UniProtKB/TrEMBL annotation:
SUPFAM superfamilies per record: Acyl-CoA N-acyltransferases (Nat)
N-acetyltransferase domain segment(s): 4-150
Species annotation: Streptomyces spectabilis
GO molecular function: acyltransferase activity, transferring groups other than amino-acyl groups
Protein name per Swiss-Prot or TrEMBL: GNAT family N-acetyltransferase
Keyword match Repressor: no
Alphabetically ordered keywords of this record: Acyltransferase, Transferase
Length: 150
C-alpha cells in the first residue's frame, strides 16, 4: 500500500470527498458537485462532534478514499458502545488495490480503541459487490434495515 496515510478530513478535502460520494449511480442522484455550499456546515458539525470521525486516505498528496465512523454509547447489550461505518468510498483508480480492506481494518481498530463492542454498517440493497466485500471481512448480514426519508 506504499505511502498511504489515513488521517482526519479537513475542509479542503470536501471537493474530493463529494466527488467520490457522487461517483456511482446512487451517489450521482444524491450529491452535487455543482454547489458545495451545504457540505461545509455539515463538515463543521462533524468536526465539532468527538463521536464523529470523518477520515480520508491520501496517497501522494491526493485524497483517494473516505469513510465516516460514528461512535454511539448505549444502554442495550449491557451498556455497550457501538460504532457505525458509513459513506465508505474509494477513488475509481484505487479500487481493487486493497484500500477498502485497509479502511475497514482502520475503522474496526479505531472502534476497539474507542471501547466499542460492536461495529455495524449498512449497504444499499443494490450494492451486491459491497456485500460480498463486507462478508469477506467478517461482517454478517444479520439484520434488515429500514429508512424513512424526511
Amino acid at each position: 500500500m506504499g505511502d498511504l496515510e489515513i488521517r482526519p478530513a479537513v475542509a479542503d478535502d470536501i471537493p474530493a470527498i463529494v466527488a467520490m460520494l457522487a461517483d456511482d449511480p446512487l451517489g450521482a442522484q444524491r450529491e452535487s458537485l455543482d454547489d458545495l455550499t451545504p457540505y461545509f456546515p455539515a463538515f463543521q458539525r462533524l468536526a465539532e462532534d468527538p463521536n464523529q470521525h470523518l477520515v480520508v486516505a491520501v496517497r501522494e498528496g491526493r485524497v483517494v478514499g473516505t469513510l465516516q465512523l460514528t461512535i454511539i454509547p448505549g444502554l442495550s447489550r449491557k451498556g455497550a458502545t457501538r460504532s457505525i461505518i458509513e459513506a465508505v468510498r474509494v477513488h475509481a483508480e484505487e479500487r481493487g488495490s486493497g484500500l477498502g480492506t485497509r479502511f475497514i481494518e482502520w475503522a474496526v481498530d479505531e472502534s476497539r480503541r474507542q471501547g466499542c463492542q460492536l461495529v455495524q454498517l449498512t449497504s444499499d440493497a443494490t450494492r451486491t459487490d459491497a456485500h460480498r466485500f463486507y462478508e469477506r471481512l467478517g461482517f454478517t448480514a444479520s439484520h434488515v434495515g429500514f429508512k424513512l426519508q424526511l
